[in-house]
Design goal:
Blueprint (H helix, E strand, L loop, with lengths): L1 H21 L9 E10 L2 E9 L10 E10 L5 E3 L3 E5 H12 L11 E5 L7 E9 L7 E10 L14 E5 L26 E9 L17 H16 L4 E12 L5 H23 L8 E8 L1 H9 L6 H10 L3 H10 L4 H10 L5 E10 L4 H7 L9 H8 L7 H13 L4 H13 L3 H8 L5 H13 L3 H13 L3 H16 L4
Parallel strand pairs: 5-6, 11-12
Antiparallel strand pairs: 1-2, 2-7, 3-4, 3-5, 3-8, 8-9, 10-13, 11-13
Helix pairs in contact: 5-6, 9-10, 10-11, 11-12, 12-13, 12-14, 13-14, 14-15, 15-16
Length: 497
């Protein structure tokens, strides 16, 4: 029986070869593609096609293999799918008999086998293809390849033994790659319940040696007191401010007895406060004024030495820093350069140390957005960050006025993460991506990580962008989660670089 089957198959092959030599394309026009559809959905590529074989006149001993494939336009990539086999009735019978004796396997594992006979004439071979989307598929097309086999184990193709393309579709036309719509917004600063500010001034009043009485006409005391009066009256008369506290600190230069210097600084500070009470109608019971004597100002002396022209200032600084006793410190300073250094210090560095410093602490009332917009350019120090932001929002975000106000805000509050963040958003919106990266990189907060990702994306540093979005997302920032998904959609859909 096996011998009979082999002989029959050989005869079929010879008959096929002879027919092929006479007509190299006997099925031209008999097989057409009536329908092709495609779709990109949820990360998968779907392609459907109907191959019309209703006009196919396939001899009973022949077999045709139809293999669909996705092929890139440049020919670099291809994915082939399971074929559909169409066979004549005689060949199907021979295959069935051969399979019973384990003597036949289909050349390709088919999705479906259709037997063409006089009583069975299927009209279409339908393909529904699905595969994971790859970027090259954006520039690809459907190709259907046909092979014709004339004997059980031999393959006869129409083009020198190669597959014959019976269909080459047009290039797929997809929408443009997804362009991410990153969410960018400004951070609203918190509202300060009370706005307190303070100004500190120095009053180098002149006193007689070892005395604490304040004499208006001694030295230039009149000028110094008039200046202090103008400063206090300015704050008291400002309808936007309420003076809450005046604090006076008395300092002495480090010469003579330490205890006496402390007493002088204390008494002279009290004398100055008494003058303020009298001149500005303050009362001790009001609790507005306080004073303290701080004695010898060694810190002030050290700063003065650092900026002086003294040739041996490094040795002076060593004495100030390393000698613990004030009396021994003074003795060591007097001994420098045979006393010359100390005389220079007494004459030039010590007098400014004998002073009263007074700090005026005041409360600023709150301002509406319109009021803040009026004050932003003339008295920005009276506004808190929230009021500046409200003023900025009176203008369009892309406007010069909006950008100007946020620039004033970051200069007024350079240590504020919120001010720095909003300045970074302005840079981002203006296309200053490198500046935005620099600013956001200084801020360890989820909002900053999120917009750092946006800046990196615009700079083409996609790995850093993904990392930044991921950190913002891990921190639970809703905008960070959204932007990360936008990035992933774009990354999955973008063209090959």
């Amino acid at each position: 029986m096996k011998k009979v089957i082999s002989i029959l198959l050989a005869l079929l092959f010879l008959l096929h070869f002879d027919a092929l030599a006479k007509n190299p394309n006997p099925y031209k026009g008999q097989v057409t593609v009536d329908f092709e559809g495609y779709e990109l959905r949820e990360g998968d590529m779907y392609v459907g096609a109907d191959v019309n074989i209703s006009r196919l006149k396939l001899p009973g001993g022949k077999m045709m293999i139809f293999t669909p494939a996705l092929r890139s336009l440049d020919g670099r990539y291809e994915i082939r799918f399971q074929p559909v086999i169409v066979t004549g009735s005689e060949r199907a019978l021979l295959i069935e008999r051969a399979q019973k004796f384990d003597e036949y396997e289909y050349p390709q594992y088919p999705r479906e086998v259709l037997v063409l006979s006089r009583n069975n004439r299927p009209g279409n071979v339908s393909f529904m293809l699905q595969t994971s989307y790859q970027r090259w598929m954006r520039h690809s097309r459907l190709v259907i390849v046909e092979q014709t086999l004339g004997c059980l184990n031999g393959t006869m193709s129409y083009a020198d033994g190669h597959d014959r393309k019976i269909y080459t579709g047009n290039p797929f036309e997809f929408p443009p790659p997804h362009q991410p719509q990153f969410r960018v917004s400004y951070m609203t600063p918190p509202v300060d319940s009370v706005k307190i500010q303070a100004e500190t001034y120095s009053a180098r009043l002149n006193f007689q040696v070892n005395r604490s009485e304040l004499l208006r006409n001694f030295g230039d005391n009149a000028r110094i007191l008039d200046e202090a009066d103008r400063i206090i009256d300015r704050i008291k008369g400002d309808t936007l401010l309420t003076l809450r506290r005046v604090t006076v600190k008395g300092y002495a230069s480090p010469e003579g007895a330490e205890w006496n210097n402390w007493k002088l600084s204390h008494d002279r500070a009290r004398t100055f406060v008494t003058y303020i009470h009298w001149r500005h109608n303050f009362y001790e019971a009001d609790g507005i004024t306080t004073f303290v004597g701080l004695g010898e100002d060694w810190d002030g002396l050290r700063k003065a030495v650092e900026t002086s022209y003294l040739p041996n200032k490094e040795e002076i600084l060593r004495i100030i820093d390393d000698v613990p006793s004030a009396n021994r410190r003074k003795s060591a300073l007097k001994a420098l350069a045979g006393g010359w250094t100390y005389q220079v210090m007494l004459r030039e560095l010590y007098p400014p140390l004998r002073r009263n410093e007074y700090t005026l602490e005041y409360e600023i009332r709150g301002f509406s957005a319109r009021e803040a917009a009026t004050l932003i350019r003339t008295r920005p120090h009276l506004l808190n960050l929230n009021e500046m932001f409200l003023a900025a929002n009176l203008y369009d975000h892309g406007s010069p006025e909006f950008r100007e106000i946020l620039d004033i805000a970051v200069r007024q509050f350079p240590d504020s993460p919120v001010a720095q963040f909003n300045a970074g958003v302005v840079e981002l919106e203006n296309g200053a991506y490198t500046d935005a990266v620099r600013r956001f990189s200084m801020l360890d907060m989820p909002e900053a990580w999120n917009y750092l990702g946006v800046a990196y994306w615009h700079l083409g540093e996609y790995g850093k962008a993904a990392e930044a979005f991921g950190k913002a997302s891990e921190m639970g920032l809703e905008e960070g989660i959204y932007n990360l998904e936008e990035y992933r959609r774009w990354d999955a859909d973008r063209e090959d670089e």
